[in-house]
Amino acid sequence: MWRFRVLLLRDSQPEVSPISNAGRRSSRIESNSAVAKSNHGRVTKLLTIGVCPLLNFDFSCRVKYNESVMEKDIKELYDAAVKVKEKAYAPYSDFHVGSALRTKSGKIFTGCNVENSSYGVTICAERNAIFKMVSEGEQEIASILVIGDTEKFLPPCGACRQVIAEFSKEDTPVIMCNKKGEFKESTVGEILPFGFSLNVDR
Question: Is-catalytic flag, 126?
Answer without folding.
Answer: yes
